[in-house]
Design a protein that fits this description.
Blueprint lengths: L9 H7 L1 H33 L3 H49 L3 H4 L4 H43 L1 H16 L5 H27 L1 H7 L3 H52 L5 H42 L16 E10 L6 E11 L3 E5 L6 H8 L7 E6 L2 E2 L5 H7 E5 L7 E2 H6 L6 H10 L3 H6 L7 E2 L8 H13 L5 E5 L7 H12 L5 E6 L4 H4 L4 E4 L2
Parallel strand pairs: 3-10, 3-11, 6-9, 9-10
Antiparallel strand pairs: 1-2, 1-4, 4-5, 7-8
Helix pairs in contact: 2-3, 2-5, 2-10, 3-5, 5-6, 5-7, 5-10, 6-9, 6-10, 7-9, 7-10, 9-10, 14-16
The protein binds adenosine-5'-triphosphate (ATP).
Keywords: ATP-binding, Membrane, Nucleotide-binding, Transmembrane, Transmembrane helix
Protein name: ABC transporter ATP-binding protein
Main location: membrane
């Protein structure tokens, strides 16, 4: 199934899983039919008793029991199958979400934090399951039960049916009054969930700082404050929802009372049997119980759409890059009159910068902190857009280039050198199809051979989350090997040795300079003289 279609709504996923939903509908139909039959046999048993028919009473009681047996079987099947469908739907939504997040360029991705995205994949999906899909199932089941009960009421007396119909219309229209407010409160709840995840992730990522400063109580303070706000958002939502529910229940109880009076009146005038009072009570309970359920569920279902709209907004983000495919560099990357400011800021970070990087050259970019070295390299790497002046790849202006194809030509490494949960091999290949020969070649070029040889399980050694069981230098070499596996033409290295000790840093710098057939752009605060002389060109910024 193609999970990458990016129009998010409950209906999209129901249509896609329509076969499974039909099976679920059959289970619900069986369940409601059995429940209704049980009520009818119970009423009939009472009628048989009023007619002194003990045999009929026993038979109807037996049939009542049998109906409950069927009800339980269908109940089990529908509950289990509902979980099976939710699993399939959640897989589809998460896959589509991963697709739209994954196709974003660097700038768009960074408009949200990682914690926000985590909240989309977890909290939001839970809310969609509970308030969306589960409520929709309940609505369907309630509608079935209500329809069956209405038919039974009609079969006893049309007056009962007409009363039911009038109240049904009121109850269906009523929730519209609360729609807008509930949607807003649901949106706030979703946002607050993101904030909670974001705050907790942030403080846990910086935990070592808290530990060494003896400030662990900040963890409690932040968790508690964020938890309280999230809880309050839920309280506000539930308050409005409960108020709406209470009013719906009031209408339901009034309608059932009127129907009880009507059926009593009809039985008193011998228009229906005595046992029918029990059946009418039970059927009106089913109809209005169902309508109450439907009104409540429809309110929750509507409140889920803002979450889907948030996904749809991301899915509809226009690509900012051009459509010209990028071929391997033949001459040079050049820039003239190049200026750049970050979005939402008037402060120019680069002002009329000029220079060129020829194919095969080793170029160092130096300058004081904050002068824009990383910004320039991110522009060259296709991580930032929206420059003024000219920046070209051979003779093509960057604004016309397709950045996905540009990324294939360029390796970008910065000081973060992220290590994924998994083995050393996984961290290098990242699931790309490669041969052992290619992996070993990348390891050799990145100067990682010694580390692999010293690791207990070689390439199968498991690295801990964020590389907590290896050194900064080892992380950088793994990040380098990962990039070299793509055989990039151009390497952009942004302060990759700044977080490692000098000796190790020097070795890594030398590994980079020793690479053949590479155009190297190397950012450094401080170039050691023995390294500096190996560069073909040094560009000074600031
Ligand atoms: N995403 C951003 N939004 C707004 N301003 C930013 C952003 N990223 C960087 N800046 C600002 O741009 C300026 C240049 O940053 P940049 O990282 O390019 O400098 P740098 O020369 O590489 O610095 P360093 O040597 O300290 O790494 C800094 O003042 C920084 O605060």
């Amino acid at each position: 199934m193609d999970d990458t279609i990016t129009k998010f709504s409950l209906w999209t996923y129901i249509k896609r899983n329509s076969g499974m939903y039909v099976i679920l509908a059959i289970f619900y139909f069986g369940r409601n039919l059995a429940q209704t039959a049980a009520s009818i046999f119970k009423g009939n048993a009472l009628t048989a008793l009023t007619q002194h028919n003990l045999n009929g009473f026993m038979i109807d009681t037996g049939l009542n029991l049998l109906s409950w047996g069927f009800f339980l079987i269908f109940f089990f099947c529908s509950s289990r199958y509902s979980a099976v469908i939710i699993k399939a739907v959640d897989n589809s939504i998460r896959n589509a979400l991963a697709h739209i997040i994954g196709r974003q360029e660097y700038e768009d991705f960074n408009k949200h934090t990682e914690a926000d995205y985590v909240s989309w994949f977890t909290n939001d999906i839970n809310q969609i399951n509970q308030d969306g899909f589960f409520s929709l199932e309940q609505t369907f089941s309630s509608a079935l039960l209500g329809i069956i009960a209405s038919v039974i009421l009609f079969s006893y007396h049309p007056l009962l049916f007409v009363t039911t119909l009038v109240f049904a219309v009121v109850m269906i229209l009523f929730p519209r009054l609360f729609k807008k407010k509930l949607e807003q409160l649901s949106q706030k709840q979703s946002r607050q969930n993101e904030v909670l995840t974001s705050k907790i992730t942030d403080v846990l990522e910086g935990f070592v700082n808290l530990l060494t400063l003896g400030q662990q109580k900040l963890l409690n303070k932040i968790v508690l404050a964020a938890s309280d706000k999230t809880g309050q958002a839920r309280v506000n939502y539930i308050t409005e929802m409960s108020f709406s529910n209470a009013l719906i229940n009031l209408i339901s109880v009034s309608a059932q009372t009127i129907l009880t009076v009507e059926s009593g009146y009809l039985a008193f005038h011998n228009q229906i049997p005595i046992g029918a009072i029990l059946i009418v009570g039970s059927m009106s309970g089913n109809v209005f119980g169902s309508l109450t359920e439907i009104s409540i569920d429809l309110t929750s279902i509507r409140a889920v759409q803002p979450i889907f709209d948030k996904y749809n907004k991301l899915a509809n983000t226009q690509e900012k890059t051009g459509d010209k495919n990028v071929a391997p560099l033949t001459q040079q990357i050049a820039f003239s009159d190049l200026s750049f400011s970050y979005p939402n800021s008037d402060r120019p970070i680069l002002m009329n910068v000029a220079g060129s990087i020829k194919r095969g050259e080793r170029v160092a970019i130096v300058g004081p902190s904050g002068c824009g070295k990383s910004t320039l390299v991110k522009l060259i790497g296709g991580l930032l857009t929206g420059y003024q002046g000219s920046l070209t790849w051979d003779n093509d202006e960057y604004s016309e280039l397709n950045f996905s194809s540009l990324h294939k030509q360029i390796a970008y490494i910065d000081q973060s050198a992220y290590i994924f949960d998994g083995s050393l091999r996984y961290n290098i290949t990242l699931d790309r199809e490669t041969t052992d020969k290619e992996v070993n070649a990348a390891i050799t070029r990145a100067g990682l051979e010694e580390f692999v040889a010293d690791s207990a399980n070689g390439l199968d050694t498991v690295l801990k989350h964020a590389g907590n069981n290896i050194s900064g230098g080892q992380k950088q070499r793994i990040a380098l090997a990962r990039q070299l596996l793509n055989n990039p033409q151009v390497i952009l290295a942004d302060e990759i040795t700044s977080a490692i000790d000098e000796k190790d840093g020097q070795k890594i710098e030398q590994s980079l300079l020793d690479l053949d057939n590479i155009t190297l752009v190397y950012i450094s605060h401080h170039l050691r003289p023995e390294i500096k002389k190996q560069f073909d060109q040094v560009i000074e910024l600031g």
